[in-house]
Amino acid sequence: MHATEYTDMSINVSRVLLKLTGNWVTMNDTEKRHRVLAMSYTIVALVYGVYVNVVDVYHSLDDLDHCIFLICNTLNIILAMYKMLVVNVYRMEYVNLILDARQHFWHLNYNADESELFIECQKVCKLWTILICSLTQASLCFYIIRPISVNIGSNKSEKVLPFKMWVDLPLTVSPYYEIMFAVQLLAVQQIGISYICNENFFCLLNLHMVYQFRMLQYKLRKFWLKINEQTDIIAYTSRCHTELKKCIEQHQSLIRFSDRIETIYTLPILGHVVVFSMLMCFDSYEIILADVSTSTRLIFIFHMVGSFMHLIFFTYICNGLIEESTNISIATYSGWWTILPMTEAGRMLRKDVRTIIMKSMRPCYMSAGGFFPVSLQTSTALISSTMSYFTLMRQSSMKVTDE
Q1: Long-range pairs, 355-362, Cβ under 8 A, ≥24
Q2: Residue 221 to residue 113: CA distance in whole angstroms
Q3: Do 211 and 122 touch, CB atoms closer than 8 A?
Q4: Across-strand partners of 5?
């Protein structure tokens, strides 16, 4: 492991979020016990959230706007459960992925030019982490603000909880009301954390991969030293071949790391892509068409903005991985290998150049369940399908209103 390990706000926040849901690496028995407790608490919160929303849907079938609100909540919770399930199925691969990233990526032993790229990567990671956490927290806060605003000026017997409980208990009377309010508040926060923690960490890993490919391109362009009349061309060729082999080893390790990320996250990506259009459609309905309170509408505004920003950033990173891994071939070809002598080292160098060019012609990518690679075109397709679903829902709502 490198002597100087890198850590910053984005990595620290991701570590905390993953620890709170029981998904981070454990190094001793104490951390294992903490992980089991965090995982158990997260599962209870998710199951409780599904139960409350499904029961409320059953008792509110005559209120379409409220049912859509509850269905949207349920889809978010189920999606969070699905992501956590898949990540825990690949638990060993996931742990090794984190340890390898810590050893090979998250360190400060870079030269001056590589450090500039690394600092740029660090800034983008911080921006992404602040943005996604802020939007998520803003959406969660209005789940709590909504009942508080309703309770202001109302009778004590008419107190409203964030989520209606269909149980035979005096939940409008102290201290039962305060206890249930706190339980729902904690459950909402834990569900929000479990919803974003894995996606946030995946984006950080993917972004570091993009910049590692850029660093490799820099190495491939810069290790060719300037040739002059005093240059020993034979020794120069041997030295270039040695440096090229190091670059090939790094390229192979990046490809393997990308494949490991894709193996773990391909099913969560598929689940998110499948559910995304439905969630955005329900968000649009609650914002534009539904007869709901302002606080409820703000919940879906922040959720929609957060989902849209996540989609754009996520597909942009995946598209960047495709482009930067493909650009390795251009960086390799741009060297001075064509003018080197046909010595044994020169022939081996040309063979290795052809190999790395051919290897980079098949770019690294993240796929949705292996069905298709994720790129910027994916975002446009999902937004288009969202508009189609919303138009259909709007027309159906207008027909029901006319009738």
Answers
A1: 355/248, 356/244, 356/247, 356/248, 356/251, 356/328, 356/329, 356/332, 357/329, 357/332, 357/333, 359/251, 359/255, 360/251, 360/325, 360/326, 360/327, 360/328, 360/329, 360/332, 361/326, 361/329
A2: 12
A3: no
A4: 107
Give the separation between CA 100 and CA 157, rounded to whole angstroms. 57
Question: 373 by DSSP, 3-state: which?
Answer: strand
pLDDT-derived band at 1, boundaries 50, 70, 90: very low
Please tell me which residue, 367 or 335, carries the higher pLDDT value: 367
- Amino acid letter at 267? L
pTM (predicted TM-score): 0.85
- 114-156: pLDDT as tens digits: 888 888 888 888 988 888 888 888 888 888 888 887 777 666 6
What tokens were used for 251? 């390229």
Residue 5 has pLDDT above 60, yes or no: no
Tell me the H-state helices in 25-63: 29-58
| 154-187 as b/e: b if 16+ CB within 10 A | eeeeebbbbbbbeeeeebeeeeebeebbeebbeb
